[in-house]
UniProtKB/TrEMBL annotation:
Protein family per UniProt: Belongs to the ABC transporter superfamily. Ycf16 family.
Keyword DNA-binding set for record: no
Lineage, uppermost ranks: Bacteria, Pseudomonadati, Pseudomonadota, Alphaproteobacteria, Sphingomonadales
Organism: Novosphingobium nitrogenifigens DSM 19370
Pfam families in UniProt: ABC_tran
Molecular function via GO: ATP binding; ATP hydrolysis activity
CDD domains cross-referenced by the UniProt entry: ABC_FeS_Assembly
Coiled-coil annotated residue ranges, if any: none
Keywords associated with the record: ATP-binding, Nucleotide-binding
Source organism, top-level taxon: Bacteria
Name recorded for this polypeptide: FeS assembly ATPase SufC
Domain ABC transporter residue range list: 4-249
Length: 249
């Protein structure tokens, strides 16, 4: 069953067409990777699915868990189970990470008609997810991403994903800025949190290295606003060896 279905999606950013009829179907239990050259529209796809302002949809449709995703506000998409991991996680001075995570989780629970987690239950959950990503629990007391290294920011974001427990995660170049050890830890964290029969992941990446840890079921090549080729994990190796230009041609 398709968890996310994109049909002929087209959009504009500042009046410039970026996505030009993109179609993709992702089923529950599947991990899909999207690769492609700079400027192909990979991050634009992520932001459009997340509902970022300024990304105007001009055509097509997106269905998520049987609902019209494009009709939802960003917070409604999040409450429905959509998670967007950013290439460059933002800093939020003055707001502790633990406060941010608790407010985010309880806001989503409220939207779904669920009771908020108590302080004790939340702290237990947050520490459990921090341990999974080998992130010092003391870092959760610090302002969101302030003074964090690139690897710490990405691990903190995966802790956030673990706490929110989404149905579908869009991870935009989660491997950027990670050293070898952090890459392994983040990859193992993604698998532990999201590799489940009722969940799905869309990985956006330039490189094979993350896919060594988070093995995709399908790999797609995005070029000039469309998916121009799809295949299995071997397609990522082909891209690594030959480059985008040769494979797209």
């Amino acid at each position: 069953m398709s968890l996310l279905s994109i049909t002929d999606l087209a959009n504009e950013v500042a009046g410039k067409p970026i996505l030009k009829g993109l179609s993709l179907s992702i089923g529950a239990g599947e991990i899909h990777a999207i690769m492609g050259p700079n400027g192909a529209g990979k991050s634009t796809l992520a932001y459009t699915l997340g509902g970022r302002p300024g990304y105007e949809v001009t055509g097509g449709s997106v269905t998520f868990a049987g609902e019209d995703l494009l009709a939802m506000e960003p917070h409604e998409r999040a409450a429905a189970g959509l998670f967007l991991g950013f290439q460059y996680p933002v800093e939020i001075p003055g707001v502790s990470t633990v406060q941010f995570l608790r407010e985010a989780l309880n806001a989503q629970r409220k939207t779904r008609g669920e009771e908020p987690l108590s302080g004790g239950a939340f702290l237990k959950l947050a520490r459990e997810k921090a341990a999974l990503l080998k992130l010092d629990p003391e870092m959760l007391k610090r302002p969101v991403n302030v003074g964090f290294s690139g690897g710490e920011k990405k691990r903190a974001e995966m802790v956030q994903m673990g706490v929110l427990d989404p149905k579908f995660a869009i991870l935009d170049e989660t491997d950027s800025g990670l050293d070898i050890d952090a890459l392994r830890i983040v990859g193992e964290g993604i698998n532990a949190i999201m590799r489940k029969p009722d969940k799905a992941v869309l990985l956006i990446t330039h490189y094979q290295r993350l896919l060594d840890y988070v093995k995709p079921d399908f790999v797609h090549v995005l070029a000039a606003g469309r998916i121009v080729r799809s295949g299995g994990p071997e397609l990522a190796l082909e891209l690594e060896e030959q480059g985008y230009e040769a494979v797209v041609a």
